[in-house]
Amino acid sequence: MKKIIFFxxxxxxxxxxxxxxxxxxxxxxTPLAITIDGKLDETAWENVPIATDFIMLEPDNGKAIPxxxxxxxxVVYNNDAIYIGAMMYDNEPSKILKEISQRxxxxxxxxxGVFINGFNDGQQDFMFYVSAADVQGDCIMTDANGExxxxxxxxxxxxxxxxxxxIVEMKIPYSALRFSAENKQTWGINFxxxxxxxxxxxxxxxxxxxxxxxxxxxxxLEGIENIKPPTRLFFMPYASxxxxxxxxxxxxxxxxxxxxxxxxxxxxxxxxxxxxPDFGQTKYDxxxxxxxxxxxxxxxxxxxxxxxxxxxSKGNIFYSRRIGGAPSVDPSLNENEEITELPxxxxxxxxxxxxxxxxxxxxxxxLNAVTEKTFATIxxxxxxxxxxxxxxxxxxxxVLVLDQRFRKNSSVTFINTNVTRNGHxxxxxxxxxxxxxxxxxxxxxxxxxxxxxxxxxxxxxNGVFSTVSFAETSGNYxxxxxxxxxxxxxxxxxxxINFYTxxxxxxxxxxxxxxxxxxxxxxxxxxxxxYAEFNNESGKVQDNKIAAEVNLSTVRNNYYGAGFTASxxxxxxxxxxxxxxxxxxxxxxxxxxxxxxxxxxxxxxxDLNPSLSIADERGRAAYGVDxxxxxxxxxxxxxxxxxxxxxxxxxxxxxxxxxxxxxxxxVETIVFANRDVITxxxxxxxxxxxxxxxxxxxxxxxxxxxxxxxxxLKLDSDGTLDPYPQYTENKNSSFYSWNADLSYSWWFAPxxxxxxxxxxxxxxxxxxxxxxxxxxxxxxxNNDALNHIFSISVKYFIDYNAVKNKVRKRA
Length: 811
Known about the structure:
5% of the residues lie in helices and 54% in strands. It is mainly beta.
């Protein structure tokens, strides 16, 4: 018995030792042609080393993959690309899930992936996925930012089903990767497989979930030597046609054309340029009734500003929607004047970015963009004369990032953003230093940054933002603590976005998670958080909370979550009054939320998210729910519907301010309202996949939100609110909108796409609230309100080397 125990212990130690050692695979040079057809029957794949013995990533981290579901991967290369051949065995091939979806959205389908780090520095992976439905996906992965699917590379793949599983064949050109110019390459590499029906995920090199890093637990790829990659020069010309129609405006068509250029200066650095940009087919923004003191923040949907921009996210001071956004200057009006034309956005003239990393780990990112001079038209209502005034001069935007990586898990980053406007208009500059330091064993982390803003305007101002946090990042139990300081005049908003200033805070988090499944749960995590924020000048509490939440998934792969957030002290809101050194007192409150998401593997699934907020003030509460049923009719057709409802009773908010003379002193009167705010939103999304390269997509959003003022209040100097019945102006708000997109997308060649889009949209803001829901929908669904756009766009990918070879053959 003792011998059995001893040998069992020895086997366990050896197994653990083997799992924590980096695996290595040899890539084999091939002079033979390979056709990417998902068959692996070419001679080039014979007698090639095999990567196998995959290990479970989740839910049962460290468990070996069953032999009947083994995975075998081969790697070969030539001067153009590396080739990946993978055989995913499955003893129940009829159960392989294979929903067809759009690129980067795998739906309910088995998955294979290869993760490549050309510098083998454990910092950034280029990830390439292929689903069992032959759908491609790619992203850039860092431990700090996670997976960024906005990055799209041009590569070739094919998946096919077999009698004993399924096969993937991939060709990844060197142009899709970054690596040093060494004659002998050593890359970080890992292979990934997900068996969707079981929700089991496996990797070739063991990734220990006890360690708070993913990218540093890859194996190595050896054998690539003396390659001579071709010139990395690509042209992507495009042509677009837009047909616009709306009430009161004659239908008109517009033709646009332009080009994107990608040029590899070296194997590690790339220049991306966009000439004559066209963003007409980007996703619409989900506008809301914004009653708060800050602008609504929108996601970036323009490919140029999302692809491969991980370097520019360092320090969190770059908000790309500033480029080509709304004009920065409000036109000044004389008496009897009104604005007759004010552009909603400034046109982008051109943009360029350079990014890459040296063999010593120095990442360099430069982004530059120019927007055109923009005018508003103003009319004299008495004389009828019009004039034009500049609301945005010719403007140059620039971002510079220098990011030095070291020890495969740490980095120090210098960031600078600069906005220069032609003439006497406002200029801005922000400089930052960020650090992400981790112990060698990836058990502890020290993270932080310091940023300095400088505004050159009629009144210059300078400000600073600093943050530092310390965290334990490994094991079942983890924690973090940190603090921020933000000065009153910190302002990065010309090329960044920041709302809260003039405070300091302290915060902490502690959490517990299971790393292997139990009889009931595949995953289980509890988080506890505390936060306290104070005004720099007065020392008053601006915000405070304690929060706890639990998130878990069952062995049936249903997901549940619940939590609460409690503010145990009154807070002083210095932002809602919209005036310097004024605040309104926010009562104590407690918020509850829940979340249910049933297994998406089933044809029918449901997402449910209720919430409740109760304030320490009579009648002041909020409650809401999001309900999202979804149904997968087949591997080609999927429909999802979401209904959202939120009601806030006795909400207190700013509605107006004006100067009032009181005993020869000018006092600003700030008017609030006690209001009920109700929001409804309905969204429908649908997908019909004709095949893995061709899809029809539907997106509809109907939104209505209203704020009905019940009592008018005056803000006192001590932050309290008193009745103010003498204010009689109607400041009710009702905003409703409609957006509908029906699109067709066809990737007819690698990197080349034809897309057609029909879009109609309408919106309206009123002071009169119509409580008839039908009215607020039908008022927008008529020809008087709707704007109609039909567009078709063709983008074609041209490889300089392919053109050069064709010319040589003809010669």
